[in-house]
Amino acid sequence: MIAILIRFELKDEGAVRGFDALADDTVAAVQASEPETLIYVVHKVCGGTFPSFLPIAASAGKEGGRTRCPSCGARDRNRHVWLHLKNKTNLFSEQLRVLHFAPERIFRKSLKKQPHLDYINADLERPRAMVHADITQIPFADDSFDVILCSHVLEHVPEDRQAMRELCRVLKPDGWALLLVPISSRRAETYEDATVVAPEDRERLFGQFDHVRIYGRDFKDRLEESGFTVRLEDLRHELGEVRARRFGLRERSPHLHLCVKSDVISKRSRGVDLARAGGGRSNERRNA
Predict the structure, then answer these.
(1) Most buried in the list 19, 32, 167, 187, measured by CB within 10 Å?
(2) Average pLDDT of the chain, as a whole number
(3) Per-residue confidence band for 69, with pLDDT thresholds at 50, 70 and 90
(4) Fold annotation for 75-277
(5) How distant is the alpha carbon of residue 264 from its chain centre?
């Protein structure tokens, strides 16, 4: 078995792009001749270098796949979001006011350090949250934020449609929101039952003891009914198989829903506004 270490700490953007391309070509060539090659990957959120990721604990004590970072604990969906934010949005290049619901620890620490961001995180219960807020009654005025980040929250909220309307309300007309929930792609429609309250029943029916539904492919429809125009982002496909494997992204990628306000879309073309929401960056800019 061959072992390859892929690590770079280059600061110049052009140099990183060049090294990235070289690393991809090297990995592809070696794996073509040595399928069992062990690739040491650089974790894109915390910067650690590891021979592999660790398993994720799943329900009933089962292993949920080897996608957890040994250093910071980030999962593949966290890396997926971070790659999208870094490469396809204006989050790290413009002065923005950001609302981050139920913030992931490693994202919170990094985003709070960005001098150009007016960063606010919120949570209903977490003691360290900057603002304690119910997502169905967000305590900010209309059109308050340029960016909203909300990952794996709405599946816990009984009144999720009200939460979606609130997120849309506080988003600025030219802002964007990145929303994620666990989705069963096999389901056309979301399954929910308000009478299911026992933790063991919720785990059996919804996949986790504190979930109140299983979203189906109609999640996008719910968002659009709440005032958003939505585009599904497929960053894994854009990265390509070799690079996706380097970053530990599973084939079953999380659903990234990029949202802008529908009333803005009615005044301009759909394509222009969604490009603006994504920071106006080309798909070719992939120096993750």
Answers:
(1) 167
(2) 76
(3) low
(4) Rossmann fold (3.40.50)
(5) 24
- Sign of the alpha-carbon dihedral angle for 272, 14, 147, 213: positive
Map tokens 């909220």 to a residue. 157
Q: Both tokens of residue 101?
A: 């619901």
Contacting residues for 258 by C-beta, under 8 A, at least 6 apart: 176, 177, 178, 230, 231, 232, 233, 274, 277, 278
Given a cut of 50, whether residue 165 has pLDDT beyond it is: yes
Per the CB < 8 A criterion, the answer to whether 20 and 10 are in contact is no
CB 78 within 8 A of CB 67: no
> Is the predicted pLDDT of residue 51 greater than 90, yes or no?
no
Residue spans per domain, the chain: 75-277
Helix (H) or strand (E) holding 223: helix 219-225
Token pair of 224, please?
A: 């659009």
Burial 3-17 (b: 16+ CB within 10 A, else e): eeebeeeeeeeeeeb
